[in-house]
Each structure stands twice: as structure tokens, then as C-alpha cells.
Amino acid sequence: MNKRIAIGHAASAAAYIIFGINVVVCRDIATDGGLEPIVLFAMRSLVAGLLFWLAAAFTPKEHVPPKDLLRLAGAGVLGLFLPQLTFLHAIAHTTPVDLSVMSTTTPIFTMFVAAIFLKEPITWKKALGVALSFGGILWLILQSTFGGNGASETEPVGILYCFANYIVFALYLGTCRPLIARYSVVTSMKWMFLASFLLSLPFAVPHLPQSDFAAVPGYVWWEIGFMIFFSTFIAYYLIPIGQQRIRPTLVSMYGYLQPIIAIAVAIWTGMDRITVTKVLAALLVFTGVWVVNQSRAAAAPK
């Protein structure tokens, strides 16, 4: 594996590890923060966007023609606005672990989107890897304990938001790779976040008079800070690095790290316990990622 591809793998893995922690963090924000999801998104996109524009002041300037500005705005809708908004709605109606297991559908959607739009072949190794990882996650969740009484708190509307989230993000991974690869990460992200913030304003402003920011608990503000800096600025800096170096399906395969991390955090906080079943399921997940990585299509020249 050459250095360029290795960086792509490392960036994708790090981003989804952050996303895994973010699942648990955002559950608190959505249930205890008292702020509407669209208001949270507007805050998230504003601050993260400002960080990317600040970073742009210290990086080489790139000219972006008007037609590509429109395309980057569209990428912002698919990769930022819709996924983040549906996620914030979903986490309020699902348990973190349930949301994480449903995230395993993203590589499946991405594989088919990439096959349609980017003509990326679906090899038998890639299909086998997806199946192994998906099976491992399903086994993991079926054997997990949801709270003290074993009952899940997930609501049907949460499931709908989850699948909407994973479908639009799969479309982003599968269709926007050529555009994202054309510019630096900072250039792409600064325009995408700007477009997303401007799009959120008409929806967020009507909710501001009802938003009691003073009533938000102190620990929730720390969690909001984590969500904005790490889960948005850092993670969304890393995702394009992965997109530029490895294929979309392989980027999305690292989404299987998300439920593993979410469960690990639950164990660390005393909400769950480790079992042989969970260890074996995790091995299945990582075996699936390895099999996809061995796919000749995944290793093809970019």
C-alpha cells in the first residue's frame, strides 16, 4: 500500500471513530439541550464554516469557477445539510446503538451509487466484505443489551430519519468524489459549509425566539463544542482526504467503526458490558473491511 492510499485509509478511519463518539454525544444534545435540530445545525455549520474560512487564510488560494461553486453548493446539500439535519432528528428518536447499526447500510447504498454514477465495478470480494461486516454488526446488535430492561427506545420515525441520512450521504460519497478531488479540502469545505449555512437560515431563524440558550446545561455546551469542532470541522476535513485517495465504497466501509466505537463508549460509561459475542462480531466487521481492501477494484489506480 502506497503512502497516498494509506493516508486515505487513516483519514477515513479517524473520521468514523469521531462519528462513533458523536453518536453518544449527540444523544445528550438532542434530548437534554432543548434546541431544535435546525438551530443546532445552523450553529454547527456557522462555526465550522468560519473555522474552514480561517484555515483558508493560511493555505494557497484556489480559483473556483461559478459552475463549480454551484456544484459545491449542491455537494453541501448532499454531504452536510441533509445528512446532519436528518442525523440530529434521528438521534432524538433512536438509541445510539440502534442508529449505529443502521449506519451499516451506507456502504451498500454507496456501492450501488458508485456503480451507477462512477461505473465502479462491484467485485465479488467487495460484495463479500460488505456482507461479512453487515453480518457482524447485525449479530452484535442482536446480542447487545439495550438498557436495564433490554428494551429499545427506538421509534419508527427515528428509523425513517436514519435511512434518509444514510441514503443522502451515500449519494454524496458516490457522486461528489470527482468534484471533491478537484480542489483542496479547505477550499471544498469552506464553500460547502457556507452554502449549507445560508440554506439553513430561513428554517432556523423562526425557531430562534423560542430557543432558550441560557437553559442549556453546561455539560451540553461542552458536547456541542465537541460536535462542532471534532465531529464537524475535524471529521469533515478528514472525509474529503479519504475521498481523494480511496474509492467511495471503501470510505463508507469505515462507517462500520461507528457502532463499534459507540458501543465501546457505552461500555466505558457503564451502560453496556463486553462479551465474547461482541468481540467475535467486531472481528467480522474488520475482516469485511480487510476483504474490501483486497478487492482489485479498490486498489485500482485513481
Can you put this structure into words, describing what you see?
By secondary structure, this protein is mainly α. It has 13 helices and no strands. Helix 3 runs antiparallel to helix 7 (156-175). The chain is globular, with a radius of gyration of 19 Å. The two termini are 13 Å apart. Mean pLDDT is 81; it is low at 144-152 and 296-302.
Features:
302 residues, mainly alpha, disordered C terminus
Number of helices: 13
Sequence of secondary-structure elements: HHHHHHHHHHHHH
User: What is the multimeric organization of the chains shown?
Assistant: single chain
Look at the structure and give the mean pLDDT. Answer: 81
Global shape? globular
Task: Summarize the main sheet.
Answer: none
Structural class: mainly alpha
Instruction: Indicate how many domains the architecture comprises.
Output: 1
Number of E-type strands: 0
The residue ranges in which pLDDT falls below 50 over 5 or more consecutive positions are: 144-152, 296-302
Tell me the layout of helices and strands.
Elements: H1 3-32, H2 37-56, H3 66-91, H4 96-102, H5 106-117, H6 124-142, H7 156-175, H8 177-182, H9 185-204, H10 218-245, H11 248-253, H12 257-268, H13 276-293
Question: In brief, what are we looking at here?
Answer:
The chain has 13 helices and no strands. It has 302 residues and is an all-alpha fold. The two termini are 13 Å apart.
